[in-house]
Design goal:
With 164 residues, the chain is an all-alpha fold. It is built from 6 helices and no strands. Helices cover 61% and strands 0% of the residues. The protein starts with a helix and ends with a helix. It binds heme C.
Amino acid sequence: MMVEKKIWGLSLVALVAMGLSACGGDANANADAADDAAAQAVAAQTVDDEAATEVAEMDVKEQELPDGVTEAMVEEGKGIYHGAGICMSCHGPDGAGIPNLGANLTDSEWLHSDGSYEAIVATIMKGVTAQESTSGVPMPAKGGTAITDDQVRAVAAYVWTLSK
Ligand code: HEC
């Protein structure tokens, strides 16, 4: 089902692209025909196209994730960030940080690592000492919670996506 929708979405893109490139040339009759075809395709596929776009976007994101990280881990991590990991209490609900407390996790500046996925995992595992912290406020290992190592990997996956 998902594959079928994606193919429809791609063929629609191809049709529209054909229409556009034909307009750029001087084959006006062909351009009109292509436009009509594209318009019909749009009308017929509006609902499916929306779904196809969503699927396509997910595929693209999945491809960009670090090795060993899945979209499901990112989703799980989002729940942990706002739940069992209590990360949001120091880093804010959207990860933008809280002054003199948790660092901003949405920018591309990493205070305690190189920002790679594995480095983020390591920071969350061991926390940040008061000496290391720019505010002097420490981050306890795993945020001071009892989340499992797998949950740390999931929440790190979510944190990794925040900075992209
Ligand atoms: C008690 C407050 C607190 C909690 C809870 C907390 N953090 Fe932190 N976190 C900090 C502080 C403080 C720093 C260091 C900030 C600094 O150096 O200015 C930090 C740093 C980090 C960094 C490093 C950022 C960088 O720029 O290198 C990451 C990643 C991080 N926290 C993720 C998490 C995650 C994920 C959770 C939830 C499991 C969490 N933190 C829970 C306070 C907290």
